[in-house]
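Curious: why these numbers?
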Amino acid sequence: MPAALKRSLCALCCCALLCLCTACSGLEGTVKEEPNTASPAAGNIPAADKPAASGIEIDPSAQSGDYDYNTINGDDAPQQGYYTPISLTHGFDALQTQPQQYFYKRLTSDVYTVAQQPNEGGNYLIEKIHLPGMYLKEEEIRLVIEAFSSDHPEVFWLDNLFGYTFDGTDMVIQMYSIISPETIDIYTDEINAVADSMIASVPKGLDEYERERFIHDNLLARCTYATDTKNIQQNWKPFTVYGALAEGSAVCEGYTKAIQYLLRFVGIESIPVNGTAKEQWHQWNLVKIDDCWYHLDATWNDSTDYIFYDYFNITDTIIQYDHRIASDFFALDPDDICGSVGKEAQLFNITLPSCTETAANFYIHEAVILYGFDEKASAAVENKMLQTALEKKQELYIQISNSIAYNEAVEGLFYQAPYQFFTYIDHTNSLLGGEYAISKENVRIIKKERLRIVEIRLEYI
């Protein structure tokens, strides 16, 4: 079947083979089939690479030099909005020992104290974290840093590096900032300005699904995929909430951090997920809607022209069609977590909840189910089309029931008798009152057979 079939309206009976029209039905129009390019933001370019953090054992007798430290403001909370912000604690809740929890709590305060001058390596020292009378193995240090980062997307300045030492009694951990404290304050103000505006624009009275979609759509309208960023060493900003919000350019981690950061301020919990897609490192979100968890991949929903929803609140089973979830920390050996000779450290997740529900899936919410072409089934689609047209929305989603063959249904809707979709348009237009109408001459469709969805783009005249 060609990608686009043109059928001209005829008053007289024309040759069906030449005109591709329904004989005397007067229902045919023009259909243009577009490729299914969900995952386009990163789908056609190499994914930006972020290796696991580098950990180094430091000499306890070495002097780090004399540095003056500044305390960062750390005011990350937008000041406006109708919804109550929540604290993110998934990472902390997974920590099992008192030294792990103590290190985490010290991070929550000490990451805001940063040296004014860089060291010889160009990093800015964060105030050393002392763990008196405690000891953590390197894999535990990595666990706590991941837990902290997972709960604090607003802390965007941490370098992908840490050092540690143990003198037999006490442990000292050294964290690093990529930028100076003055720059951190400036960038934080820029993030807050964007977040203030976005959170203040979330309408009052939305349920959790509606809030999530509002944040998702507004972020994707603002942010584009940083196609020129190959790795975090080249450019760290697209990996952060700063890149996504302040600069409007991010890779998958930046999208993930921004989604998590914004959802927090409308009362929705989210967790970053480490994994791979197309055999390259990738990150996306788990989102908790009405006490159920779902996968949300905002990066793969983004595109140059459209916002897609194929990865909006999907199950573990669906996400694993083209994503691979990294192993759980507690299932890995220390050499896997920390790396060893000839073996790189692995990225991991921290005890992710299962995602098995479908109630908050985008297509469950937004698509109308097509069971056939009888009067009852047609009425359901026509009602959805009328609702779409009254709001002048461009997107209409039809989910083909498992009771009918997907391709046969698409043919019957658009390409051969009964050309049912154009009947829907005629009936809907008759109810619109004549001020405007749905065009039959430029109907664009995207077939998504795996999801049994037909996405239709409407135009109005």
Notes: The longest strand covers residues 280-289. The chain has a mean pLDDT of 89. Residues 105 and 148 are 9 Å apart (CA to CA). The longest helix spans residues 181-200.
